[in-house]
Amino acid sequence: MADDEKNEIEETEETPEPAAEEVSETTETVDEAPEAEEAPDTVSDETEAEAPAPEAPVKKQRPRRHIPRAARRTRTKVKREPAAKRKPITRLAKPESERGSRQERRGVVVSDKGEKTIIVKVDVIKLHPRYKKVVRRSVKFHAHDEENTAGIGDTVRIVETRPLSKTKRWRLAEIVEKAK
Q1: CATH for the 104-177 domain, from 1.10.340.30, 3.20.20.70, 3.40.50.720, 2.40.50.140
Q2: Would you list the domain boundaries of the chain?
Q3: Which of 39, 60, 77, 153 is the S-S candidate for 179 at Cβ 3.0 to 4.6 Å?
Q4: CB neighbours of 175 closer than 8 A, spacing ≥ 6?
């Protein structure tokens, strides 16, 4: 039994040794990998053929981050088949609707002193996004009044239009209610 125990002890002692050798081999291959990048420039083809092949698996080298444009692989584009017959260009008649939706506002005339111009005060009521409180704001718009029909205190409807002057971008659409 003493011989069996000695054999078991020797076997257990031998098993850690190959693991240590494998570790040293892997570290050597890791250490050799950076040298392998520099070696092809200096080593000739004859010495490479004479060198014995390593038994341990060699770690793959990472591709370089920057590859010159000439060395990059190219992907070919798929070509379409040309159409057998071209379609004729057809022009469709423009629809007879307005170009876009214009904004409309309703407010009270504050001033009518300008020639063909009124100033309309529009009250804007919004809910505050965070505090949920009703916030009241007012905005004044200069509007074009062709016939000078609107007076101070009138409730009017104005419509967005093209720029008519430096400040006028609105036009009087209708007088909703006359002032008393």
Answers
A1: 2.40.50.140
A2: 1-34, 104-177
A3: 153
A4: 149, 150, 154, 155, 156
| Structural tokens at position 167 | 């400040």
C-alpha angle with apex 57: 33 to 38, nearest 5 degrees? 20
Using one digit for the tens of pLDDT, what is the confidence trace for 77-88? 788 887 788 878
* Residue 107 φ then ψ, to 5°: -155, -175
Q: Rounded to an integer, what distance in angstroms lies between the CA atom of residue 63 and that of residue 138?
A: 65
pTM of the model: 0.45
Strand partners of residue 156: 107, 175
pLDDT tens per residue across span 156-169: 999 999 999 999 99
**How does strand 117-127 pair with strand 104-111?**
antiparallel
